[in-house]
Each structure stands twice: as structure tokens, then as C-alpha cells.
From TrEMBL:
Protein name (Swiss-Prot/TrEMBL): Threonylcarbamoyl-AMP synthase
EC number of this enzyme: 2.7.7.87
Residues that hold ATP according to the record: 56, 60, 115, 141, 149, 193, 235
GO CC terms of this entry: cytoplasm
GO MF terms, alphabetically ordered: ATP binding; double-stranded RNA binding; L-threonylcarbamoyladenylate synthase; tRNA binding
Amino acid sequence: MFKIETIEKDRDQLQKAADILARGGLVAIPTETVYGLAANALDPEAAKAIYAAKGRPSDNPLIVHVSAVEEIRPLVTEMPKELFSLAEKFWPGPMTVILPKSRLVPKETSGGLDTVAIRMPSHPVARELIRLAGVPLAAPSANLSGSPSPTCAQHCIDDLDGRVDAIVDGGECEVGVESTVLTLCSHPPKILRPGAVTLEQLSQVLPDVYMDEGVFGQVGDDVKVSSPGMKYRHYSPKARVILVKGDFESFQKFIQVQEGEFGVLCFQGEEKSLPKVCIPYGVNGDPASQAKHLFDALRQVDEDNLKLVYARVSDSEGIGQAVYNRLLRAAAFEQIDLE
Ligand code: TXA
Ligand code: MG
């Protein structure tokens, strides 16, 4: 474990982690969204090791992380002009763009697709590690496949201890949900996964961008999905999660009449008015705070050994769309509407 307080003070530790990456090793690293399980994106064996450590299906492609726009050119066959406008506005930051891949990117990294997902993270530790390793880093979220994404080093230890060569602790993730995934390979461009860079923000650069129908809907095994990640049950605690939509008053009434043992995912401050085991995730009306605490709350559900939780959900706008998208998957689309 390498603990990084500042880039300047902990340069030796960063260099050691970067050396492991350059040699083809696996290192869990902090980013501003969630922790990533990083390896050399251009090394097929390193990419394979990522899938093995996570227990991830090998057709679910990895995101390739770069530290500068020039590093993208050798990875793709085309640099559309929209990419430069997007980069200027949203990079470094929580946005991933899908582009046609070049032969330099092995099929192990792209999950067998002829496209590649690229992101330039803003977390200073992630950026420095890419720079020091001297190669683009493939990094899916550093959780076991199917469990909630990690937002601190302890979550990575819980899931991956003994399965990786090192873990770099860079503190708690600022955003808390994974990046917005946008494809420029379909026309008009579409969002495959909502994140902190919102539909409204992207429309300022891409006026006809839209949200893929799979984002808030259920996709069956027989349906062709735009992004392999959509078809897997995701972000789920072991417990059964049921979403409950409505205001706090109707939620309270609903909870009062439920029988048997269960817990509640609610907003901060609501615990005292609910006679149950409550796990708060962020503040009502503040979706950014909900995003930041969601995955930790979902992990807490299992730590508390709950078998069933009712999760309060509020209106979803902006980054709230990302929160709702993750909750829908955690709940395997089970939802009760009180409105
Ligand atoms: O914030 C993030 O994006 C984090 C941090 C570590 O950067 N990474 C992350 O990676 O969330 P992962 O692997 O957990 O999610 C990547 C998503 C998956 O849903 C995957 O199917 C999709 O991006 N994806 C990757 N490459 C793709 C491609 N070529 N075409 C369509 N979807 C792709
Ligand atoms: Mg993931």
C-alpha cells in the first residue's frame, strides 16, 4: 500500500507504483470518480490480469486513461473535431469518449470491440502515475465484478487484497460515481452511462447528443446493447434493494406499514424519523452529495448484514441521473412509485 498525501512529498512512492505498472503489474489507483484497477493498456497480458483479478467477463471493455490529448492519437484511427471541443471543456475530468481504435490497442483491452474508451482523469495522483508509467493505463473500477465501485482505498482492500500488486491510497474520491461514457462512433453521439458531466453540459458542445434508452431501462440478454457494461447486474450489494419514489412523508408512511426485517437507505437527517436501521447517502435535493456517498452506503448495507433495504430516491436531474442509473442497477430495476 502506498499512501500519497502530496505529489511532491510522496514522489518516491509514486515512482514505485509507476514502476510496477510499467513492468505489467496491477495497481489500484485513485481517480476523481472512483478507484481504478490500473495496468498497461497496450499489454494484452496485463489487460487479461485485470479481468482475472476482478472476475470480470472478458467481453466488457476497459477504459484507457491518458494524461494529455496528444497521447490519444496513436490509440485511435480518427480524431473527430468534436473530441477537441469536448476535451477543452471537460478534460481533465469525469468524461469517457468512445472512438474507433487503432491496432496499437489490443483486443484484450477493448473487449474484442473495434472501438476504445478514452478518459483523461483530473485526479493529480492518477495523472502523475500515467505520466511516470509512460504508457496509457487501462482501468476499470477497482471492485470485484458486480459489487459497488470503490470510493476509498479501504474498499479496494476489501475487494482486491491479495489479487493486486499494490494499492495507492489517495484519499476519498471527490465525485463518487463513475465517469460519463459518451460514444462519438454513432451519429448523433449518445450517452451510454450518465456521470458527473451531465447531458445538459454535453449538449452545449454536441447539440444533438441524447441518452441511450438502456440507461434507465432494462435490457434483456437477447437485446443488442450499445455498451457491454449495460447488460451486467451492477453495483449491487448482496441484499435485495427496492427503490421507493415519493416525498419523505409518503416514504415514512410506507415504511411504517412494512413487515419483517429490513433496513432503509435515506437522506442525511432523516434517520431520526425512521424507526429502522438507516444508512444515509447524501442530502435530499443535493445530488452531488448523494453521488459522493452512494457506493459507500451500498457497501454498508452488506456490512450490516441486511437482507432487504428500501431506498429512498428523489428527482433526478444533472448528476442525479447518474445516481438514479446506479440505484436502478443495484435494485435490479425493482421500484415502487408512491406518487
Ligand atoms: O470513472 C470511471 O470511468 C472509472 C475510473 C476508474 O476511471 N472507470 C470505470 O470503468 O468505471 P468500468 O470498466 O467499470 O466501466 C467502463 C464502462 C463499462 O460499462 C464498459 O462496458 C464501457 O465503459 N465501455 C468501455 N469501452 C467501451 C466501448 N468501446 N464501447 C462501449 N462501451 C464501452
Ligand atoms: Mg465498474
